[in-house]
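Problem 3 from the worked examples.
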Amino acid sequence: MSAPPHEPRLNLSPSPGDEVKHTTCYMCACRCGLKVWIKDGQIRYLQGNPDHPVNKGVLCAKGSAGIMQHYSPARLRKPLLRTGERGSGEFREIEWDEALALATSWLKPIRERNPDELAFFTGRDQSQALTGWWAQQFGTVNYAAHGGFCSVNMAAGGLYSIGGSFWEFGEPDWEHTRYLMLWGVAEDHDSNPIKLGLGKLKARGAKIVAVNPVRTGYGAIADEWIGIRPGTDGLFAFALIHELLRSDRIDLDYLVRYANAHWLVIRNPGGADDGLFARDEAGRPLCWNRGPHPNLPPHAGEGDKPPPPRAGEGWGGGSLTDANATDIHPAVVGECTLPDGRIAVPVFQLLAERYLDPQYAPDAVSERCGIPADTIRRIARELAQAAFDSDFSLPIAWTDSWGRKHNEMVGRPVAMHAMRGISAHSNGFHTCRALHVLQMLLGAIDAPGSFRYQPPFPKPVPPANRPGKARRDNGTLDAAPLGFVQGPEDLVVDAQGQPRRIDHAFSWSYPLSAHGMLHTVIRNAWAGDPYRIDTLLMFMANMSWNSAMNTRETMHWLTDRDGSGDYRIPHIIYSDAYASEMVAYADLVLPDTTYLERHDAISLLDRPISDADGASDAIRHPVFDPATQHDGDGRPRDVRGFQSVLLDLGARLGLPGMTDENGAPKYRDYADYMVTHERAPGVGLLAGWRGADGDEHGKGAPNPDQLRRYIEHGGFWHAPIPESARYYKMANRDYLQWAHRFGFIATTDPIPLQLYSETLQKFRLAAQGHGALQPPEEHRERVATYFDPLPMWYEPFESAQNAGADHPLSAITQRPMFMYHAWGSQNAWLRQIATRNVLYLHPDTGARFGIADEDWVEVSSHHGTITVQAKFAGNVQPDTVWTWNAIGKRRGAWKLAKNAPEGEQGFLLNHLISDITPRGDYANADPVTGQAAWFDLRVAIRRADTAGMSAPQFVPLPFDATRDAPLRYGAAMRAKDHA
């Protein structure tokens, strides 16, 4: 007789852990609140913090998989010193004292002879408030973060138009919007708040329209998908603007109250003042005031709006008046003669003249965009109906900047959100500006139901901080290396107008490159353009692989030698937590911690986590001491947080602000810096619990007990905005006073929205031969063309310079919702979702090129060829092919198994993307901001002669591969629970 079946002993009420600690997630840009449950010194599980303002308890697959990020076999163990050829991946482990002494010996002579010989470029660090300050104290102009190939034209397009931007710095009014347009939004940034918001919209029956060549993620749940051709979003926006103007469905009252629609622009073709604003003796912009409107009593509220002036209406009597004065009835169309005889017209007239042109009519742009003209007209009607026919307002009294009382907040329940799908093009800056003009015409900037600013935005247009370029007597820069150029005088160029920065940011080639240009630094350093550097210091930027355009050549530039046999880039110092592809190209590797072993400040001085109703910041603090954590082979790890290492290096170098009067380190570590450093009196990295007693917020003296207060409060600080201050922030007296009190803005003056940019016109005038600072001859036409004060559209450079039938398809990447950058796609749990990628194409596209589902194909651009597997999908515009990015790995990297699918079948489109234009004259980037034009790629496809392995393949890196056995977690804990 057989034995009875064994019944497992199950613990039906397992303990969630011995203790719980609160910190901030690092698995994407959301920066959600985490509860880390610990049992027997190990993570039991990760849970969303329900009290946190960002995620309110929600945690996605990436966040939950943070366990496997912390226990990844790819974690570095000790500092590494190169022993073989650069790129070979051959190192020996060294101690920290030796590593820091070596780094100091390289950096100290640079600081003494020429600080610009250090190029300090960081990736997804989220600590620019420290790294930018460190570069300023070192004195190098050659500092940048990852935004130059990520979002700089999105940020600049917004900050030079409305004083805020899309991305993580603004949000739709999730509670009230009735019509949401998502432009180029994938599933990567800010995902949990967007998911929460979309759930509210779906429950309320609001309409969601997704504009994207690919329908995935958020677009998949949209009510309507607009499968647009890549790079034509600006044309679509202009067609919508055309229709709104043609049908007179715009909010002129809003444009006059809050924007510069009525400001007078001088018309003097060929003159040095052409296109500038007419101003009075005090420099204030002027308008033509037709006198008090008979239907508008003084200090009228929103409910007493006059009928708007119509196009073509005569000016009649009146006078020149300060455009920001109250109780005026300004003209928005027409022409006037100034007292000195010059001719001037309002901004709105220039806007109407441009976008009412037939070239922007729906029928004219339909074929180019791939959108039926009737669809364009319908979307325009729906936008207007949602904005103007809803009769929506909030019964909240408020006071505007001029002291006018309003008994309600009039709503415009149309919201827009945009991301990389519009920014990663060479025309992305103007496309972003076009969307902001569309929003302004609808009165849909920070009105109830529309796009909303998140503190510390809005900022003055443009923000006041200019990039540093001169060194003080102590060797520090006169300002932070990154900033916002306001005119040619702010460029970082030499007396001949040539670039002074190694990446050419803030030069005549890319003047408004507010985040710098990480994607150009390696080529320029290799070429010695404009000069040779000595040391390249990088943090968490995988520039030899998935963060490189022109990947093969980038690897060559990192290893190339000059005629004397020396490396063209003499020293490379790299810090990362994991054995990425870039580690192999370093001379010295400084191992970083995981995010559960470190201090971090998610600061309002950097990339804030605020929402539209309040200001927030947060910290990370060590849940585990890295000295107690072992690597995948059970060996102890000796790693340090990069921010603390930077401060240690700064003290060893004697950098100003990093040592005391006796030359001793001023900061014990980054945690000490977070608490005690002041950027200005009372302003530090963290805004909560300041002051000696911790009872001040926003501004106040350092509080030595500050971190404890954060930890007690779940790791975050949140200050709600008063109810009367939550909308119309650019001109809301209560908000501006609140923001000034917190140090977000320097004054309480209103912030006029800019339909027309005088900053851009200043550059155009310089290119036309006016002013003391003019571009070199080779840049004149480029600057004059692309620095248009009104948004414009032009064919993306790769299409325009590589026209014809040779490369008929667009190729783009999307970030999957379940992974984020290469360091997420090495995660054991997330790899269970996908271990490789394929090239998706529409079945009609397959038939067009003789390709069957799951065929292997050759994909070629003007730059190169790759071999990949194709897969049919109906969720893509037929003239576009696409794939998930950053899944393909170089074999040997990330301690994956030697035959891991990521290395054998996975691939990158990066191998096809040139870092320069087809013409070879400029970087493959936006000409205004230098934003990398990843999505301009044009390709041809054909069936491949080989199958089974992607190409190109490179020599595997000799990092130790992980064990072939499945990487499991928690089995021992489960066994103990069931014992």
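Problem 4, a separate protein:
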Amino acid sequence: MDSKVNSRHWDSHGVNLIPALWPALRARIGRDRKTSGKSDLGLGHYLDVALRSAVMDTDTLIGLHDRLHAERMGDVPKGKKTTLSLSPAAREKADTLLELLEAADFARKGKDVMSALVLNLLRTLEKEGPLPRPEVPPLI
């Protein structure tokens, strides 16, 4: 909704995730487009939600990294990058995330933390079930 109402404020931002997340994210978007009737859902919307809902606490962010590495038994591949439109709030959180990691001497781990955020979002959405069709109020 915000991307439509405030689209002029959304701007490009680089995103780097482990490669396996991109097709999983696209599959979820495809299902959500069908169930919600919102054919304009895109990758940026989901990354935006993942970032905006992230807790900007150094220990929490490092914990996300550590859990992802434990779950993958240390096998976390190089990332696949793209550029997506994100809201100002999400772009600010992305910058804060990297600053917090760097301040904690945990630089160059942003891809893993972002991947963990997206993975957690996908798992949460899976538990919640299909994205419902929004109820648009009548004009009159």
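Solution to problem 4. The mean pLDDT is 93. The CA atoms of residues 29 and 42 lie 7 Å apart.
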